[in-house]
Amino acid sequence: MLGVDVKGISDLTGARGANIIRGTRFRVFFTTITVKGRGSDVRSMKTAALKTLGCKLNQYETEALREALEAAGYAVVDFADDADLYVINTCTVTARSDYKSRQLVRSALKRNPDARLVVTGCAAHLDPERFAAEGDRITVVDNEDKPRVLELLGEGGPAGDVSYFRDKTRFFLKVQEGCDHDCAYCRVVLARGAARSREAAEVVGEVARAVDSGVKEIVLTGVNVGGYGVDLGGPGLGALVEEIVKLPGDFRVRLSSVDPSDLDDILIELVAGHSRVCPHVHLPLQSGDDGVLAAMRRRYNVAEYKTVCERLLELNGSAAVGGDVMAGLPGEDDAAFENTLALVEEIPFAYLHVFPYSPRPGTDAAAMPNQVMPEVRTERAAVLRAAAARKKEAFTARNVGTTRETLIEEAVDKETGHHVGITDNYLHLLVRDAAGRENTFADLVVAEGEGRLYGTEPEG
Asked: Phi and psi at residue 261, in whole multiples of 5°?
């Protein structure tokens, strides 16, 4: 084992003023592993392991850090393995996310008593002192400085765009970050700052590189994807998608979460009818009660949400509409909850993510009167999850027997050994005898069997 002195940075201050490393010095310990390169090249490398919690945006940023680490001479290993450097990209969307983030830090500290840890992401950004207190081998890096992890450690330059697309099937592409909304319950906006969109040419260029490398599905992601372009004073998300689908190549585009108020006519028509855009959109609902939506400071009411869903499904009845629902915001009484449940039953959702409300420090909702008791939140969430299961079952039943464009992934189902395929409208199928067909599109018939969904070849 080797030791090298590295000077700390005297003042690592991000745009939000976080300052965790103050003139420290520490020793970098690293073991070596032997890696065979092309021909007979052999080299010794430091090892790094990365772990991501939370959103697709975090996944994109972790992948960029992975590339930077490899460029700096690290061999990236599994997070469960011993490593010289652990990078943990945290999430703070719920109290549970904070807890999982701290548990990952503690497990990494125990796994290798000589390893360094870099803790970044939204939970670390908002509560740096708490993470720094976990141990003196920890470096906390805020979100603004996340691309500069290696630079701050004195080992390399900043992370750039993703250029090596290790998963040739699906790629989560960041089009923007930050959010200008002011939802009463949300802590993420405190961690991510104001909305900042990437220039359209930059995004389109990254899509082109991904497609050229063999990626088949581009998933557009960000903190507030639907608000893309507003800060640039130019065309919005719909115009960006229109430019992307003009690119040559065999690929499709999928939208991630889009605020209902941002799903305009251009986007609805693209999602409903363009051959290269997946008929699937995730529309956060949060509540089916106008009073609760107003307290949340959401930018739509129940009637507007229903109208967006109806317009999309009128154009394409097989499109998948997903959503998020929160149970137990302060002030949500029994009548408000019943309104939410009734709306969930009315709209033909393909799936729903259900969360009990979690008071987040620094948010207005945490200080609201009429807090709902935790056990009531849990009970309401359970009722909504049962309704969500029925909606998913009904959506699946409507699709059985239909033929869907399916992207066969490299991933293999552990239980059956069959490959996994994802349809354009976001059904996950098992595909038998798919070896050699990975990362290709196939028109498959959705079928049921042994409690699972399968993709089968059309007859004839």
From this structure: -70, -15
| 235 pLDDT above the threshold of 90 | no
Q: Which candidate, 174, 167, 267, 175, places its Cα nearest to that of 216?
A: 167
What pLDDT does residue 44 have? 59
Pairwise CA distance, residues 260 & 309, whole Å: 9
Amino acid (1-letter code) at residue 120: T
* Residue 350 maps to a domain: yes
Q: Are residues 35 and 134 in the same domain?
A: yes
Q: Are 445 and 401 in contact (CB under 8 A)?
A: yes
Q: What is the phi/psi pair of residue 243, to 5°?
A: -70, -40
pLDDT grade for 290, boundaries at 50, 70 and 90? very high
Strands, sheet with 351-356, edge to edge from the N-terminal-most edge strand: 280-282, 320-327, 351-356
Residue 352 pLDDT more than 60? yes
Cα separation, 281 vs 272, in Å, equals: 10
Which amino acid is it at 222?
Answer: G
Could you tell me the two tokens for 127? Answer: 């509560």
Amino acid at 21: I
Report the DSSP pairing between strands 320-327 and 351-356.
parallel
Nearest-angstrom CA–CA distance, 122 and 101: 10
Give 31's pLDDT tier (boundaries 50, 70, 90).
very low
Which residue from 358, 365, 361 is spatially nearest to 381, judged by alpha carbons? 358
Q: What phi, psi does 350 have (nearest 5°)?
A: -85, -30
- Give domain status of residue 351, yes or no: yes
Would you state the structure tokens that stand for residue 211, as one six-digit string? Answer: 């497609």
pLDDT tens, residue by residue, 44-58: 579 999 999 988 888
Closest by CA to 122, choosing from 158, 171, 88, 80, is 88
Strand 196-197 with 428-431, pairing: unpaired
Least confident stretch, 64-68, 320-324, 351-355: 64-68
What is the identity of the amino acid at 335?
A
How many distinct structural domains can be found in the chain?
A: 4
373: DSSP letter:
P
The per-residue pLDDT for range 439-459, each reduced to its tens digit, is 999 999 999 998 899 999 998
Tokens 């509409």 locate to 321
The pair phi, psi for residue 11, each rounded to 5°, is -150, 95
pLDDT in tens, 130-172: 999 999 999 999 998 998 888 888 887 777 666 655 666 888 8
SS3 192: helix
Are 147 and 13 contained in the same domain?
Answer: yes
Q: What is the span of the domain harbouring residue 449?
A: 403-456
CA distance 396 to 131: 43
